[in-house]
Amino acid sequence: MASKPLVAVLDACVLYPFHLRNLLVQAAFDGLFDAHWSDDIHAEWIRNLAANAPHVTVDRLEVTRDRMKDVLPQANVRGYQSLIPELDLPDPDDRHVLAAAITGKATLIVSWNIKDFPIENLRSHGVACITPDAFLVELYGQFPEALIDSVARARGNLRKSLPSNEDFVGAVERQGLAAFAKILRQNTTRID
């Protein structure tokens, strides 16, 4: 890959859904982009997932977080807290995400909550916000072969429950990745 990888902060809402988290972490592990997150972002997705899925324990989610940190040790952003009070966003509780992006020198925040990260509030920091569906489509545009190979590895990560290609693509689509699922359906034999 000749071009410099994108640097993106992954918001809690994109780490919350299992298949989306798996795809993004695998793509970052494979070098298709540089993923960033923070302990605050991890705490948010873990807290929300544990509250909405009581059968999933916080301990189990913390093990997942720790594995993510182990496979992408450079992803964890620290030292951003001092920026938070100076940042302006519609929801003050989202300022930590922008602070992590600034500190981590990210140009993108990957989030479903586009309205929480308005262009006019991000532009001066050299950051933009993009949905995970648009982000994965953009990655595919840059690295079509490599991203499909990465998706195949992400599917392979599901050794215990290895879904069929169609079930896997369906799960990805149900998590809001409609445009990316369409790309995967065009490459279904390659994600085996």
Overview of this protein structure:
The protein is α/β, with parallel strands linked by helices. The chain has two domains: 6-135, Rossmann fold (3-Layer(aba) Sandwich), CATH 3.40.50; 144-191, no CATH class. 52% of the residues lie in helices and 8% in strands. The protein is built from ten helices and four strands, in the order βααβαααβαβαααα. The chain has a four-stranded parallel β-sheet. Strand 3 (108-110), helix 6 and strand 4 (128-130) form a beta-alpha-beta unit. Helix 7 (132-142) crosses helix 8. It is globular, with a radius of gyration of 16 Å. The mean pLDDT is 93.
What's the SSE blueprint?
Layout: E1 6-10, H1 12-15, H2 18-29, E2 33-36, H3 39-52, H4 58-71, H5 95-103, E3 108-110, H6 119-122, E4 128-130, H7 132-142, H8 144-156, H9 165-174, H10 178-186
Parallel strand pairs: 1-2, 1-3, 3-4
Looking at this protein, list some descriptive labels.
192 residues, alpha/beta, Rossmann fold, 2 domains, 10 helices
CATH fold-level name of the largest domain: Rossmann fold
Structural class computed from helices and strand pairing: alpha/beta
The order of strands across the largest sheet is 2-1-3-4
The whole-number mean of residue pLDDT values reads: 93
Main sheet attributes: strand count, strand direction, barrel closure:
4 strands, parallel
Q: Which homologous superfamily in CATH is the superfamily of the largest domain?
A: 5'-nuclease
Q: What would you call the shape? A: globular
Shape-level CATH architecture of the largest domain: 3-Layer(aba) Sandwich
Order of SSEs: EHHEHHHEHEHHHH
Low-confidence stretches: none
Considering DSSP H and I runs of 4 or more, what fraction of the residues is helical? 40-55%
User: What's the gyration radius in Å?
Assistant: 16 Å
Strand-residue fraction?
5-15%
Q: End-to-end span in angstroms?
A: 23 Å
CATH class of the largest domain: Alpha Beta
Overall strand count: 4
Please, how many domains? 2
Count of helical regions: 10
